């Protein structure tokens, strides 16, 4: 794998850290800014919605720029946004700073996915995407627990100062190692790029991403109160357990990439089934420390095993003009799932059966995503029968 992929991974690490680190700081933020835990949880939803808006807008706005220039500009936005988070005097300003930071997220991963697949042979595309997304798993494995520990020791603002420094370092690495792609094709007319949104399979791919992944954040958004209030662990025990989640993400990310290299659609279906099973099992595992740690690790594996297959699925169905846009929109779809999951989890806690029921609610959302994936596969099979798609070959690989 080219060293440029490692540079993309470094950028993904910085962005992933700021996205996920707030999960380990909910109690500190809610106490310091005098808001409820569910209000602090909305900082996750606000970030995710910012990604959903920023992904298509910035992808279209930067479509005529070289991809390396775009990546560097996005990393600069990310760094300045985290600086604003560290300096935010109140909840409202923190929310605004989180949204500003999030604007870079979707386009970075969307453009980065296209760059990554262009650096390797066609049969290694899913693995290339998985390697770039390893930055997210490393962020969860190292950045989030370290951020949670730092926030516990020195206050939550110190965590955002640290993430700002990560942004500066990631900018330098991207500038040094990501090549300027020679012979980049001129962008197609905007009308042709937007036409990708009229493809039913692209829309189904985006929908399965939103709903399939939403279940993860019904639970993960509230992992700190789950572990402290339901399992009965101390706040200081949360950071080490987040390391287990991060380790699971690393395993699931590589596993999902390898499965998708072989059969993308089968990988989508299999990983969504596994995720629904793990989420449904939370009810029976969260009550004791040992089983809770096992659950957290399995949740990490199952959640990120879905990422490379669903991202590659959308890229395949959006081939040609509009691939950058579709790729960024699928990153936005992951984050819409994050926002939806955080909101549904908050409603379940405040107006429903409470923390104990989050696993069942999460599994139901993921099963809806699985139903959409089955619908998409049925359309593929119908197209194969009519000759519109090749039967299980290298180009279809369903």
UniProtKB/TrEMBL annotation:
Keyword Membrane in record: yes
InterPro entries, A to Z: MFS, MFS_dom, MFS_Efflux_Transporters, MFS_trans_sf
Molecular function in Gene Ontology: transmembrane transporter activity
Subcellular location, record wording: Cell membrane
Presence of keyword Acetylation: no
Membrane-spanning intervals of the chain: 38-58, 70-89, 95-121, 128-152, 158-181, 202-223, 238-256, 263-284, 290-308, 329-349, 355-375
Protein name: DHA1 family inner membrane transport protein
